[in-house]
Design goal:
With about 500 residues, this protein is α/β, with parallel strands linked by helices. Helix content is about 35%, strand content about 20%. It folds into two domains: about 150 residues, 3-Layer(aba) Sandwich (Rossmann fold), CATH 3.40.50.720; about 280 residues, Dihydrodipicolinate Reductase, domain 2 (2-Layer Sandwich), CATH 3.30.360.10. Bound molecules: NADP nicotinamide-adenine-dinucleotide phosphate.
Length: about 500
């Protein structure tokens, strides 16, 4: 699936006893080894407080691979090789002595595996512990030594508002240069998200009409059927605005709206995304440009589910939003006057992420009033998940003598055209970080530009201004106010 193999290195995962390591990181590393994409000298060491031996850690990670790898069943030969590269060290995140021991272990692994002193640090703990780990890695584990590299991957959430994101950036920059820092937004590792750029810039027919002259509006939907599971206490402080809008949604907006970069390099791509994020504003000409909702009890996929405030870890009087719709405007020459309506929610009827570009209507003078009223605008839909593909809607004449026109759809489906399953986003991102390619990671100015847009919205809500929380039944498409919100512009949400 990829080209180059990275140089030998040791990956150090902080918080390796957690869910992310189990479900995503270790299965992704195993799949990379199985695809022969990692060097033979690669090694990994997990660091966390829970006591484990190398052996018990390997046993647990075997179950992780069995359950979550793309390849089933596990291949014993590959597993044996992979397991030998896995190590574990128990330690306290704030105890310098534990980092000194880790340092010695890393040097011993270097000698045994020939990993050459290169380090990839991964922060897979809750964000409360990021600062102390960064500081200890920076002061004790020697960020970069002559002839070797050190990089650090930071998981989301990156800050909880503009001030905290800036503070985290400053803290990281005390020990790491920007090109050593890899901020993960796993959406960017998805094949279909990367394909937005390929679709736009490797095809000649779409780019000329990709602007305010031809596009009426854009709708982006990130809909989930799941609730909050056992992440209640995290979600209470996040809501959709921090969980989806500030990161995944704004990334989708930026990729859809950005100018073509001068070259396909990390900085050129990110420069163009930052320009979009800086030109974005929430349309506050009517209210605060948002509709907030929270799910009540209801039926999803035929099953009764409790309301948000009945979930574990949620306050009975919680005002956290589980649904959010916003109207965004991009103040630049390409997009002036074209609204980007974005919506995301939990416990909606269907799991779907898509970008729909609706084009302006042609002049319909040719057709009778009745026929003209049946004609629907052209629509281009980029399906990100779960049915990855692209579809184009246009009007066609119904066979027969009349003048009837019906919308028809031209469909491209990844699964049907490319028979191989797409690799998991984490495979791509881990490999890119090892290769030193930051294109699919967010840069400090990008994260701050996203927070600069989102923070005032959160502050207005906190001050009791702006939209109120509206209840919606689980299994429906959000509160009725969201329909009224877009209808006020003479438009409607797509029925999915
Ligand atoms: N899980 C996912 O699918 C996912 C997806 C996207 C982003 N993320 C992000 O990735 C990071 C890790 O996620 P996760 O789901 O693996 O988290 P997790 O299971 O809650 O925590 C990972 C590990 O961190 C340590 N830890 C937990 N709470 C701590 C605390 N208050 N102080 C110090 N250490 C603590 C624990 O290890 P010890 O007790 O053994 O030290 C735990 O096993 C988080 O920042 C999360 O937001 C996760």
């Amino acid at each position: 699936m990829f080209g180059k193999k990275p140089e030998p290195c040791i990956m150090v995962i902080f918080g390796a006893s957690g869910d992310l390591t189990y479900r995503k990181l270790i299965p992704a590393l195993y799949d990379l080894v199985a695809d022969d994409l990692l060097p033979a000298e690669f090694a990994m060491i997990g660091f966390a407080r829970k006591p484990k031996t190398n052996e018990s850690f390997r046993q647990e990670m075997r179950s992780a691979v069995e359950e979550f790898s793309r390849r089933k069943p596990i291949d014993e030969r590959i597993w044996e090789r992979f397991a030998r590269a896995l190590h574990y060290q128990q330690g306290d995140y704030s105890n310098p002595d534990d980092y000194r021991v880790l340092c010695q272990r890393l040097e011993a692994i270097d000698r045994a595996h020939g990993s050459g002193g290169n380090r990839l640090y991964y922060l897979a703990t809750p964000p409360e512990v990021y600062n102390t780990i960064i500081e200890h890695v920076g002061t004790i584990l020697c960020p970069e030594r002559e002839g070797s590299w050190a990089r650090i991957i930071v998981e989301k959430p990156f800050g909880h508002d503009l001030a905290s994101a800036r503070a985290l950036n400053e803290h990281l920059h005390r020990w790491f240069r920007e090109d050593q820092i890899y901020r993960i937004d796993h959406y960017l590792g998805k094949e279909t998200v990367q394909n937005i750029l390929v679709f736009r810039f490797a095809n000649g027919i779409f780019e000329p009409i990709w602007d305010r002259r031809y596009v009426d509006h854009v709708q982006i939907t990130v809909a989930e059927t799941i609730g909050i599971g056992n992440r209640g206490s995290y979600y209470e402080h996040a809501g959709v605005i921090r969980d989806i809008m500030q990161n995944h949604m704004l990334q989708l907006v930026a990729l859809t709206a950005m100018e073509p970069p001068a070259e396909f390099t990390a900085d050129a791509v990110r420069n163009e995304k930052v320009k979009v994020l800086k030109a974005l504003r929430v349309d506050t000409s009517r209210g605060d440009g948002t509709v907030r909702g929270q799910y009540g009890p209801g039926v999803v996929n035929g099953q009764f589910v409790p309301g948000y405030t009945q979930e574990e870890g949620v306050a009975p009087d919680s005002t956290t939003e589980t649904y959010l719709a916003m109207k965004l405007l991009i103040e630049n020459w390409r997009w002036a006057g074209v609204p980007f309506y974005v919506r995301s929610g939990k416990r909606l009827p269907k799991r779907v992420t898509e970008i729909a570009i609706q084009f302006k209507m042609p002049p319909l003078l040719l057709f009778s009033q009745r026929t003209a009223s049946e004609i629907q605008p052209n629509l281009l839909v980029l399906n990100i998940q779960p049915d990855e593909g692209i579809s184009l809607r246009f009007g066609a004449k119904v066979p027969g003598s009349g003048e009837n026109i019906q919308p028809v759809v031209m469909d491209f489906k990844y699964g049907a055209s490319f028979k191989v399953p797409a690799p998991d986003a984490y495979e791509r991102l881990l490999l890119d970080a090892m290769l030193g390619d930051g294109t699919l990671f967010t840069r400090s100015d990008e994260v701050e530009a996203a927070w600069a847009l989102i923070t005032p919205v959160i502050e207005r809500w906190k001050a009791g201004e702006g939209s109120f929380i509206e209840l919606y039944r689980a299994g429906t498409w959000g509160p009725k106010q969201a329909d009224d919100f877009i209808a006020a512009d003479g438009r409607a949400w797509r029925k999915l």
